[in-house]
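ok here's the first one, seq then struct tokens
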Amino acid sequence: MYQLLSGLSVIEASSFVASPTAGLYCAQFGAEVIRVDSVGGGPDYRRWPVTVENSSLYWENLNRAKKSVALNLGVPEGRELLQDLVRATGQFITNFPAEGFLSHARLAEGRADLVTVRVMGWADGAPALDYTVNNAVGYPMLTGPGPDPVNHVLPAWDLLSGAYAAFALLAAIQRRTATGEGSEVRIPLSDVAIGTVANLGGIAEVLYTGENRPRLGNAVYGLFGRDFVTADGQRTMIVVVTHRQWANLIAALGLSDQIAAIEAARSVSFAADDGLRYTHRDALYPLFESAIGAHSHADLAAALDAAGIVHSAYRTMHDAAQDPRLVGGNPMFSAFDANPSGFAYPAAGAFGTVPQQERGAPQPAPRNGQHSEEVLTERLKLSSGEIARLIDTGIVGTSQ
């Protein structure tokens, strides 16, 4: 953790991936993020993966460094307490519906300069999930060799929406600092997805060509890049992104003469044209398959590293979790045993590195309702007697 956002407090009422990710990123940079859930936990509180005791490893990692307030949101008094917390704090992240008791207009009645960031499914308010939005924008029809669509397991649009929401929160706060005006920023997953497709040239591409991009399996579109198998059966991905890397790859594999023969036969030069290497992959791939297949993975990796070629062997997530470069020796991670699940494992902190500041260790996720009394006392100035009444009547929950 870093203290770049110290002094900033945010109320978060959310679930699943996108909205909690926005709060997590703010918390990792020092903001006080107060997550408000229903008593007993929201709909994602037990989401898999879980331990044998049914404690969600997913939840405790998406909510590190946050505080937790538990309220009975099914009754008016519990909803009013959440509204009061949002107004008292002035910054709000949510994926609750745009209308209803957490609408920006209703909340702003008591706090005109309120900044609300709302993650949505579709811009018109219709629900959507990462996996359905991904289908809608066409990526599963580009993935794999075909003919059937292939879903991927990474919730990319949730994660991009969460990161964009954190950015939008700070942008709206910056505007409020300059003008004194509050605002609501709505971030639909569908717009993040189709906007990203457009930013990468996808919309323009299909309209220009009049057709869809071909499905390439593990090949990289427009570049020389694909998976190859070494002599000892290790599958590895090799991608060439610069002309120097192309020259070094040819030299490392001893393919100069064979590449020159293809260039002569087809009246092309691959030396400075990514597109030509991609276009003529039918002739290039067999050469590289044969050359790479003659090396062990260890020898190939050493040669590619010496030549500055980008490559990586395919491996499992279990392998990655034990990689000292990625996890064990990575300062982003710290050994952590204070997790609500009771399971000790490396915990990730802020992804960014600030060389001028000391990197603080990751913090634990809270238990549901762990900070209810603290927050209601500090933010709403409720007396101990009033808080006791709220707890006794089930309006407020505390961790056990």
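and now the second one, same deal
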Amino acid sequence: MVATSSTERAQPISLIPKQLSTWKRARISLLGARWPILALFILGVVIFMALFASAISPADPNRQSLVERLMPPLTRDEATGQMRFLLGSDGLGRDLWTRIIYGAQISLAVGVLAVAVGGLFGTSLGIIAGYFGGRVDDFIMRLADIQLAFPFILLAIMVLVVLGPGVWNLVPVLGIGQWVTYARIARGQTIAQREKEYVEAARCIGASNLRIMVRAILPNVLAPLIVIASFNVASAILAEASLSFLGLGVPPTVPTWGGILNESRDQILAGKWWPAFFPGLAIMLTVLSLNILGDWLRDFLDPRLRGR
């Protein structure tokens, strides 16, 4: 067993002893990188808010009070002295902190589900294209080229105008918009793997093509796909915020970070900064944390940096 001294914690990934388990190497790498730890902490807070929104929120996210509209942050109740609006209220008197907490549910759910849909669909098609090659490969890659010919945001707006806003309409639109990235990466990795000895050995013992693709090739192409997925969760959150800002994401009664930004446009012009600042800050911190974590995953999962 290799001891993990304090000097090892600051070592780059390539110098971490290979004898250690994957979890220990990841822990040492995180302690040496430092920034991913902060990113994990921020993401942990956001996930906690999303999971326990009903328990930690101080009010109903849709409760309106025109008498209390546009209250500044740290507003206290004059009668009791208790905190009334931690982050202020919006143009309809709704508690901004509560709406941001509930908005984390939709933003994270849409990001994760969209990546799951796009990753599953794109990875499957990419492995099929790379494994069989020929006309199958040409057909799938031409579909990818056709989709890339259309600007994604324009395509998403067209589909959502027809289907209408809603989470279950938004998720497949964002997922299908991401499948090309997964398909191309999975195809390239599969082409590199399909002629290797372990694949030939699986063929010799009579394994079916499906078994070879799922049990032999898929585990060996997952590393770069996991990295892409971490970045694409951030992209999906930004896309949801953009579409909600345009009024095409989810219904107005459902609080989302992009929807809160959309509702705060008039307040910005009136000099009320907090209805737009705090949801924008939530989006920025979440996306930045996901990107930092994705950078660390890319370095940690890169075999060239593991001394292999």
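notes on #2: Residues 96-132 form the longest helix (37 residues). The first strand starts at residue 75 and ends at 76.
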